[in-house]
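Below is how a single chain appears once it has passed through the pipeline. First comes the sequence as given, then the structure the pipeline wrote out for it. We keep one example in the README because the format questions we get most often are answered faster by looking than by reading.
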Amino acid sequence: MAVFKRILLKLSGESLMGAKQYGIDEKRLAEYAGQIAEAVRMGVQVAIVIGGGNIFRGLSGTAKGFDRVQGDQMGMLATVINSLALNSALQAAGVKSRVLTAIRMEPIGEYYSKQKAVAALEQGEVVILSGGTGNPFFTTDTGSSLRAIEVEADVMLKGTRVDGIYTADPEKDPTAVKFDEITYDEIYNRNLRVMDLTATTMCKENNMPIYVFDMDTPGNLMKVLRGEKIGTLVKN
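Resulting structure:
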């Protein structure tokens, strides 16, 4: 039995690169689709937000001379490309899914509304929510926080390449210690970079728990859904 009925799964665009230096690794994409398909067969309602950092990141574009607004718009389009790739992989795995976009771009995807997203989730479809918030100056972390709150998810699952939240970056500091649970206030006080401040504050103010875990290891999503404590829970 799953411990959550409805989840918002936030996936990293960088993780989609897999072993590649850029773009989409078909093997990683298939692994993600397989894990999500298992969740759907378990009866979990799954909404997904995926980043675009494997293709283009607005802030890094700004550092290279792009206008910030247009750079962020390019980043939003990168999330749409990743969403279409994941949608295709899910359908190949036999999962009903659809892409909703924060900016109108039919027929690439349907224009997002809460009612449309919730209706699809209740019918057992995976809903991929692309285009961030549709506005510049907001990250996909903020977009995923917003969508998790809007669709009334039980939890926001943040799939990363590390297995939780540590006192420091475990890839740089071998003495870093992992938290099993942590509060939003502790994240602020310790200045931990779990998500950007806007996203973290939205979750705190709307009492949306976040669970950070390693999505790049096949089988981990099912472990989280069964209640195994393999990552870090963030809550009030």
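Helices lie at 26-41, 58-63, 68-92, 114-122, 140-150, 184-190, 197-205, 220-225.

See the next section for the split statistics.
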